[in-house]
Here is the input.
Amino acid sequence: MVAYGEGISSFVFVLSGRTMIFILHRKIYEVPHDKKKQYIFVTNHISWLDAAILVKAYRQPFRPLGKVEMSKIPVFGFIYRNAIVSVDRSSAANRSQSIRTLKSIISKGISVMVFPEGTFNLTHQPLKEFYDGAFRVAIETQTPVKPVLFLDAYSRMHYSSIFTLNPGRSRIVYLDEIPVEGLTLSDVSTLKEKVKSIMESRLIGYNAAWINPDTIQ
Here is the structure.
């Protein structure tokens, strides 16, 4: 597939006092992207590196949400705490609070970013099952959903350890937005599965490294 546009920028990650790892970020826009428009960004979650990639992926006002446990990870916890609104999913009350947080951010005219899988995808399928939260908020606030793929985080840093960091490319793919005008809360599951299907199809199309063809359902 021919991309509409591309952007390239370098990223230097400090691994220790004497070691630096060079990662080249490349943005791929499958359709024109309006940075002035408000979105619910949804992104696949496959690596400890995802939190650091966020800084390069989104060049517009946005607030990402992520699980509170990640803030406790050495080195990446610091990045996480300074980049992400932490959400505790340990109870229904805390999950409800995360929905209210999302709505509050949207009401201020700021986009939000959610990892709808919640935790790392360890299945070797394109994606895990999605939580409802991002799609419920999209419908309730009438904010379009914008899928974004992190294609190479798994290869740059395997989820098994933060010490697997290695140099190379990091592709970030912006897909077409998915409108929610006219949808109601009864459409949450349909919207969720539509977004998941589109993201899965493109991850397979880009030959994402973690996908085992034998596990694709």
Remarks:
- The domain at 5-215 is CATH 3.40.1130 (Glycerol-3-phosphate (1)-acyltransferase).
- The longest strand covers residues 5-14.
- The two ends are 23 Å apart (CA to CA).
